[in-house]
């Protein structure tokens, strides 16, 4: 029972994406004669019929005087199964539209139902009334379609989603460490515009008994925030304004602020189905650093331009995402301080908007502009709790848990400036 309700809820989302927004009650329903046979398939005809009727505005099944005849069949093409949808308009000169798709047997019943439902929506759309003129935004045509009705349309899916994160740590085993952290990511995504505001802050305290009876006590506060406002230009390209602020005292950064612009090309800016994606990004920013202690170059504060060229890749599947990001950057006026950054991650979709991520990253450097002249002058508690980021090679790993509120599908689909 719970699974059926979840499936219908997902079907409603699919309908809103495929058919646009229409009223829930129609004065002149579209009458459909249903004919389905799916022996050996991952889904049943009853579940598919219920989801189709519930999610398609104005459609009524099993009508004696049908406006349409819908036939659904499947055949085994191991390791996939081919689903065939025939939609016929009866009459003196009947016409039939056939749509087919091969779906992997490992895809699961809920996702298979949504995939076949998408075929039904696509085939039904030409026979529905278009209740409003089409709207074109960013090269995407949106139609409002459904059975005729005098009632106004319901709201379209929201372009917003919010992603909070929380963390905590408590260790008491010779050394006591307490830590709390939190973050918030706010996004607005449309075909032409991407707005992303993200920030996080963490606090850690340590009480450590040193050999000889001395103790080491202290705390570390780290924080960061970033703003991206991007506009799509078409053909996978976009430009963006980028701003950020970071506090990393363990890395000799009392405060780093940046402001710049970027250019991006992605093969698929919106990746709504299984597949791979790749692209290239170039960013140039004005950087202003305020250091905790004087750097090896003799700066207490420093303003300089920096640019970065990067490659991004993604493999998106029903249950997981694989991502890879490699970039090369350097100050424009001092290329000897180059660095190569790389990261890889796996994100598991546990249930709905709940995700677990595992990631690793590395930095290989020719030099670090924020390296202190005397590393021992930094707070030893900060370097104990979070290390320092000046060596030739730095490697890190992390585990994350997140939940997305709002239109969580956009987080998976919109790949711009991630």
If you had to describe this structure to a student in words, what would you say it looks like?
The protein is elongated and about 90 Å long. A hairpin with an 8-residue loop joins β13 (253-266) and β14. The longest helix is centred in the N-terminal third of the chain and has 18 residues, at 2-19. The protein has 418 residues and is mostly beta strands. The strands form three sheets. Strands 19-18-17-16-15-14-13-12-11-10-9-8-20 form a 13-stranded antiparallel β-sheet. Strands 2-1-3-4-5 form a five-stranded mixed β-sheet, with helices on one face. Strands 6-7 form a two-stranded antiparallel sheet. It is built from five helices and 20 strands. It folds into two domains: 2-146, Rossmann fold (3-Layer(aba) Sandwich), CATH 3.40.50; 160-413, Beta Barrel (Porin).
Mean pLDDT: 82
Radius of gyration: 27 Å
Give the biggest sheet.
Answer: 13 strands, antiparallel
> How are helices and strands ordered from N to C?
HEHEEEEHEEEEEEEEEEEEEHEEH
**Total domains, how many?**
2
CATH architecture of the largest domain: Beta Barrel
Q: How far apart lie the N and C ends?
A: 37 Å
Looking at CATH, the homologous superfamily of the largest domain is: monomeric porin ompg
Number of strands: 20
The CATH topology of the largest domain is: Porin
- Arrangement of strands in the largest sheet: 19-18-17-16-15-14-13-12-11-10-9-8-20
State the share of residues found in helices, binned by percent: 10-25%
Overall 3D form: elongated
Beta-sheet strand percentage? over 45%
In the CATH hierarchy, what is the class of the largest domain? Answer: Mainly Beta
- Poorly predicted runs are 1-27, 148-155
Label the structural class: mainly beta
The number of distinct helices, counting runs of at least 4 residues, comes to: 5
């Amino acid at each position: 029972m719970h699974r059926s309700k979840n499936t219908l809820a997902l079907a409603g989302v699919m309908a809103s994406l495929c058919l646009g927004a229409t009223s829930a009650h129609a004065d002149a329903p579209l009458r459909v004669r249903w004919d389905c046979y799916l022996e050996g398939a991952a889904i049943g005809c009853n579940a598919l019929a219920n989801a189709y009727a519930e999610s398609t505005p104005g459609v009524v099944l099993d009508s004696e005087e049908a406006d349409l005849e819908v036939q659904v069949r499947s055949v085994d093409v191991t390791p996939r199964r081919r689903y065939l949808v025939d939609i016929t308009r009866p009459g003196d000169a009947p016409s039939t539209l056939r749509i087919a798709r091969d779906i992997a047997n490992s895809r699961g019943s809920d996702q298979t139902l949504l995939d076949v439902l998408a075929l039904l929506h696509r085939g039904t759309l030409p026979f529905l009334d278009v209740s409003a003129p089409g709207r074109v935004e960013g090269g995407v045509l949106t139609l409002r379609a459904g059975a005729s009705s005098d009632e106004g349309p319901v709201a379209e899916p929201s372009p917003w989603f919010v992603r909070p994160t929380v963390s905590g740590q408590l260790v008491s085993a010779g050394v006591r460490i307490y830590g709390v952290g939190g973050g918030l990511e706010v996004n607005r995504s449309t075909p032409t515009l991407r707005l992303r505001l993200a920030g996080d802050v963490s606090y850690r305290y340590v009480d450590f008994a040193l050999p000889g009876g001395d103790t080491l006590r202290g705390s570390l506060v780290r924080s960061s925030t970033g703003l991206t406002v991007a506009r799509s230009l078409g053909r996978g390209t976009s430009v963006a304004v980028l701003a950020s602020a970071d506090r990393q005292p363990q890395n000799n950064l009392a405060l780093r602020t940046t402001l710049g612009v970027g250019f991006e090309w992605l093969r698929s800016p919106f990746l709504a189905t299984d597949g791979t994606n790749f692209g290239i990004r170039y960013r140039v920013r004005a950087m202003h650093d305020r250091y905790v202690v004087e750097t090896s170059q003799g700066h207490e504060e420093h303003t300089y331009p920096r640019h970065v060229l990067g490659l991004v890749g993604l493999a998106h599947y029903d249950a997981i995402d694989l991502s890879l990001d490699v970039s090369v950057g350097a100050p424009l006026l001092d290329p000897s301080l180059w660095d190569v950054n790389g990261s890889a991650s796996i994100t598991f979709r546990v249930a709905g908007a709940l995700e677990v991520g595992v990631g690793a990253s590395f930095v290989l450097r020719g030099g670090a502009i924020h390296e202190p002249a005397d590393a021992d002058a930094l707070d030893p508690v900060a370097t104990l709790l979070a290390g320092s980021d000046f060596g030739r090679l730095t490697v890190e790993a992390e585990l994350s848990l997140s939940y997305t509120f709002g239109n969580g599908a956009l987080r998976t689909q919109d790949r711009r400036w991630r």
